[in-house]
């Protein structure tokens, strides 16, 4: 058995939502290095263009689309357009937002925005791209969940985010069972705290209690985006051919405690 070949994505085409920066951009690098052509789909057109240029400079065949993946009609139109050009084999549902607030302080707008981006949009994308995958009897979807989909993080008990990530984990399992017979696999990665703009941007300042986070993480540090990307590459490639419906923790041991 040629084990390294199992990670080869040559000839495949992958779309990464929210791929303009952070974990999504690193996932795009991982899949691109494995041979896949990449489409970056991000709300921020400039960020998406810069990400595609960065990938191209590393020898990856990359393009981008500016899109709000929380808009189902736009997602369906994009899936139809891209698949007409060249089929999308791999969908990475990575776009996500975190609005930090305790339950009683959560506004209607923040609750709805969190659900729209973190769980509804993942379903719109899975449905739109999954339809084409099912028709071709080949496809692979990886959802970016969170350890927050499994446990309640402390000290910030961020009900909207936690609920949205629990939903994406169960959506993963439901679609995995529904689409296995069509040769479409659906898995998720559940990261712990990863150093990105979501967690360490200057806007956030000192509002997080990083000391508590590190105490609660057996490996004693935050994760790096590339550590999530490696796990996504495993799930997105034939290396994980017997995995579907899996939620792979990449959290430094956080959910063991
Ligand atoms: P970032 O905030 O760094 O990046 C998120 C990206 O998603 C941004 O480029 C953002 O664009 C884009 N995006 C947001 N909303 C939409 C939308 N409606 N349509 C298209 N693109 C959108 O986050 P991370 O890289 O840290 O997070 C990536 C994923 O990993 C998320 O799902 C997050 O919940 C999850 N995760 C992150 C953890 C962490 O500690 N960082 C831990 C566990 C899970 P724009 O800049 O324009 O808003």
Determine Rg (CA atoms, Å).
17 Å
| Oligomer designation | single chain
Indicate the structural class: alpha/beta
Sheet with most strands: strand arrangement: 3-2-1-4-5-6-7
**Span between N and C termini?**
37 Å
Helix and strand run: EHEHEHEHEHEHHHE
Would you tell me the overall average pLDDT? 96
Ligands in the model, by name, code or SMILES, are:
NADPH dihydro-nicotinamide-adenine-dinucleotide phosphate
Strand content: 5-15%
**Runs with pLDDT <50, length 5+?**
none
Largest sheet: 7 strands, parallel
- In helices, the fraction of residues equals 40-55%
Shape: globular
Count of helices?
8
Total count of strands: 7
Please explain how this structure is put together.
This protein has 257 residues and is of the alpha/beta class. Helices cover 43% and strands 15% of the residues. It contains eight helices and seven strands. It has helices spanning 22-33, 45-57, 72-85, 108-136, 159-179, 197-200, 210-215, 225-236, and strands at 13-17, 37-42, 62-66, 90-93, 139-144, 184-191, 247-250. It has a seven-stranded parallel β-sheet with strand order 3-2-1-4-5-6-7, with helices on both faces. The protein starts with 12 loop residues before the first strand and ends in a 7-residue tail after the last strand. The mean pLDDT is 96. Bound molecules: NADPH dihydro-nicotinamide-adenine-dinucleotide phosphate.
Short description:
43% of the residues lie in helices and 15% in strands.
In terms of topology, how is this protein built?
Layout: E1 13-17, H1 22-33, E2 37-42, H2 45-57, E3 62-66, H3 72-85, E4 90-93, H4 108-136, E5 139-144, H5 159-179, E6 184-191, H6 197-200, H7 210-215, H8 225-236, E7 247-250
Parallel strand pairs: 1-2, 1-4, 2-3, 4-5, 5-6, 6-7
Helix pairs in contact: 1-8, 3-4, 4-5
The structure holds NADPH dihydro-nicotinamide-adenine-dinucleotide phosphate (NDP).
The site of NADPH dihydro-nicotinamide-adenine-dinucleotide phosphate has 29 residues, from helix 1, helix 4 and helix 6.
């Amino acid at each position: 058995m040629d084990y390294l070949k199992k990670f080869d994505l040559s000839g495949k085409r992958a779309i990464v939502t929210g791929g303009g920066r952070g974990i999504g951009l690193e996932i795009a690098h991982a899949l691109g290095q494995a041979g896949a052509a990449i489409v970056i789909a991000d709300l921020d057109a400039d960020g998406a263009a810069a990400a595609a240029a960065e990938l191209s400079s590393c020898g990856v065949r990359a393009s981008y689309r500016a899109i709000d993946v929380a808009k189902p009609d736009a997602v369906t139109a994009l899936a139809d357009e891209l698949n007409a050009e060249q089929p999308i084999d791999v969908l990475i549902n990575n776009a996500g937002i975190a609005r930090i607030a305790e339950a009683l302080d959560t506004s209607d707008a923040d609750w709805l925005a969190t659900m729209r981006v973190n769980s509804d949009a993942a379903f719109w994308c899975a449905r739109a791209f999954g339809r084409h995958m099912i028709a071709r009897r080949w496809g692979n979807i990886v959802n970016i969940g969170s350890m927050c989909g499994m446990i309640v993080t402390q000290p910030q008990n961020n009900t909207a985010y936690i609920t949205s990530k629990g939903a994406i984990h169960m959506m993963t399992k439901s679609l995995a069972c529904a689409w296995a017979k069509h040769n479409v696999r659906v898995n998720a990665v559940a990261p712990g705290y990863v150093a990105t703009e979501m967690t360490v941007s200057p806007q956030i300042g000192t509002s997080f209690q990083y000391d508590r986070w590190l105490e609660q993480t057996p490996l004693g540090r935050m994760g790096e985006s590339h550590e999530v990307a490696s796990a996504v590459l495993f799930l997105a490639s034939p290396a994980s051919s017997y995995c579907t419906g899996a939620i792979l923790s990449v959290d430094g041991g956080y959910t063991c405690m």
